[in-house]
Amino acid sequence: MFKIRLKKPVLNSVARKIFVRRISQAASIFFFFFLFKRAAVFPVSDKLPLSIYFKMDGLLAVAMSIISKSFSLLFPAIFLLFLIMLSGNFFCSWLCPFGGIIDYICALSFRKYWKISPAIKGLFRSMRPWTLVFVLTSAVLAGFSYYPFLGFVFDPFVIMNGAFIGLKIWLVFFAVILMASILKPRLWCYCLCPLGWFYTLVGTKLRIRKIINFSREKVFKIR
Q: What confidence tens digit (pLDDT) does each residue in 48-85 have?
């Protein structure tokens, strides 16, 4: 059996990247909780960006734009989408407080040393595209008929906000996601989260560098 040995500089580089990512996640988690607590203080501050996570939520912004038929709701989320088009989906691994909480819980429970690793098979493994379709379909139905918008039930920030307010249904939902994500690290992120899949599509299919290279190839073929 062959073993791959990484050189120390490579290991140091990987460890440094993980460390910086953990700091970034911790800062995002702290900022989310800070804004959450400040939003509950009266009088509510109009100087702090209390709803910045919801406004930067690209999928929620698209859904709300469809429902309201107004592109103004795409701001400021469109700036984050542009950065993802430039650099790929960095949000889920570096800035998402939901994913950060999952990663920290796995780290604190020493999950990487567990021998249990349940396999995820079948349709459940590829549910993210379907939850994304559900969110967008719900937005279209809410925008052009009298159906209520139900896509918010899969939004990570809505789930977190509802859980921390103390609403039982959201608290239970959040707890189930966390427990499932300990058994299978980032189960929510890799199998269910529509926002993560949306950012992945934007960061791959709409990646600016990829579009430019594709355009160049077409030009050279024409020549």
A: 899 999 999 999 999 999 999 998 889 899 999 999 99
Cβ neighbours around 186 below 10 Å, total: 16
In a domain, 2, yes or no: no
Q: How far apart are CA 97 and CA 110, in angstroms?
A: 20
Q: Give the N- to C-terminal CA distance of the chain in Å, as an integer.
A: 51
> Are residues 194 and 134 in contact, defined by beta-carbon separation less than 8 angstroms?
yes
By CB atoms closer than 10 A (0-12, 13-18, 19+), residue 77 is buried
Q: Quote the number of domains for the chain.
A: 1
pLDDT digits (tens, 9 = 90+) for 114-169: 777 777 776 777 899 999 999 999 999 999 998 999 999 999 999 999 999 999 99
CA angle (62, 60, 67) in 5-degree steps: 55
User: How many of the other CB atoms lie within 10 Å of CB of 25?
Assistant: 21
Q: How do residues 41-55 score in pLDDT, each as one tens digit?
A: 888 778 889 999 999
Handedness of CA 163, 166, 168, 171 (dihedral sign): positive
**Considering the entire predicted model, what is its pTM?**
0.87
Provide the residue range defining the domain that includes 98: 10-222
The reply to whether 156 falls in a domain is: yes
